[in-house]
Description:
Shape: globular
Largest sheet: 8 strands, parallel, barrel
CATH superfamily: Divalent-metal-dependent TIM barrel enzymes
Radius of gyration: 18 Å
Strand content: 15-25%
Structural class: alpha/beta
Number of helices: 11
Order of helices and strands: HHEHEHEHEHEHEHHEHEH
Distance between the termini: 41 Å
Number of strands: 8
Helix content: 40-55%
Number of domains: 1
Amino acid sequence: MNSYQISRRNLLRNTLIATSGVALGSHLLAADEPGQAGTALKGRIKQSASQWCYGKIALDDLCAAGKKMGLAGLDLLGPDAFPTLKKHGLVCTMTSGTGDIIRPADHDSGVEKVHKAIEANAEAGFPNVIVLAGYRWDIPDDDVGMTHAVTFLKRVAGLAEKKGVSICMEYLNSKVDHKGYVFDNMAWGAEVIKRVGSPNVKILYDIYHAQIMEGDIIRTIRTHKDIIGHYHTGGNPGRNEIDETQEIYYPAIMRAILETGYKGYVAHEFVPKRDPLTSLAEAVKICDA
């Protein structure tokens, strides 16, 4: 495995463990807390959360708590988690796929992984599979990387279309968290999607990463609404809570997303500095546009 494939889930898990305590029992019992059962949500934004941010909480317990908050599902899990999600009436809103799609040497193994994820999603009735573009390290230039990414995505697009599953390539920042990551600007990703030419190949627009690299979030959402298939949230700076402690104003962003006619999921992917489930419940309320 290439070192780049060490995902942010692993990189940040230690931070999560070090900085957050878990008071799970109180969340499962307190139905009147904000975002929990007993607080009606508008529900126009279908919200999810990335499971890796809550690594100290058993999946079954996280599903139960998330359901009470009004979550529709959880992000970045594999087929082994599908039965637990289904037990709680939740969706895997983004299934793990593969990375390094800009390197031809990794294409065969990557295509196999994505095909398996597509098949599992289709059987379960789940919508999305993630791919990560990869890093520039030994790639001559971004145009070469783009060519290889398009080749890879065309190899998986056919099955995705046949099975009714979307492949979402994620935008990450190369300034703070992912030095050398090639898809660090919307123009590069949009051109890849254009060249692939499949309605089932889209962009995972991570608002935290995009804020670091380019800002101009709402204009970008409006401009590229037809090729964005999924959203991630996170506070900047720090990738922590999305409340008043950071610079991104999520209520306005959620309203802009709704105005585009978006019907997919918005997944919270921030590392809580406070009690994890309290922060998640607050995020659900903040984004309930």
